[in-house]
Structure to design on (191 residues):
């Protein structure tokens, strides 16, 4: 087996383990699929939590070191293109550390289990999507404009201002939705 194949399998296993640990959906999936990483978290000292903070995040540090130590003359731009962006790496670090600490805290406070799929930022994205929509073309609102939008959202109700853009969809519990389509014109009657 070539070194490249071993590295590909290692990369695949790293990402598979990461996604499985952060996508624990229900109490039975891990048992049904025979995958320990899909079992719910029940112990604050679960080895998967240590894997996420120690092994998974260390993988990116090792990746960066291997790019920096690569023989040959590469510009800084070329080396940056050989690895994930700084913003993506920082996002992974924040996500992993937050999920691990929240899981441990919940389990220490008496929760019987934690399903990591339930951690998401969709409600926050929906809320700020409403703000972006209500601001029109203003990409840089002042504090007063933001506060005015908050009052408007609280007064009218957040379901009245539906976000146009974003990667989340609003779940409405009632069939009445405000529609911005023009009303049909009535025919004119001649005298």
């Amino acid at each position: 087996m070539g070194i490249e194949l071993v590295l590909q399998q290692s990369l695949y296993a790293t990402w598979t383990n990461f996604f499985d640990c952060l996508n624990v959906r229900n109490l039975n999936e891990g048992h049904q699929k025979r995958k320990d990483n899909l079992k719910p978290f029940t112990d604050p000292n679960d080895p998967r939590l240590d894997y996420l903070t120690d092994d998974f995040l260390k993988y990116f540090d090792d990746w960066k070191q291997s790019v920096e130590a690569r023989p040959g003359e590469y510009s800084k731009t070329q080396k940056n293109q050989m690895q994930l962006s700084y913003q993506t790496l920082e996002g992974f670090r924040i996500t992993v550390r937050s999920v691990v600490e929240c899981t441990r805290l919940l389990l220490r406070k008496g929760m019987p289990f934690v399903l990591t799929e339930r951690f998401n930022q969709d409600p926050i994205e929906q809320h700020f999507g409403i703000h972006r929509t209500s601001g029109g073309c203003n990409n840089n609102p002042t504090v007063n404009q933001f506060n005015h939008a908050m009052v408007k959202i609280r007064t009218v109700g957040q379901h009245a201002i539906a976000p146009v853009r974003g990667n989340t969809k609003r779940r409405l519990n009632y069939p009445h939705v405000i529609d911005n389509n023009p009303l049909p014109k009535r025919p004119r009657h001649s005298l």
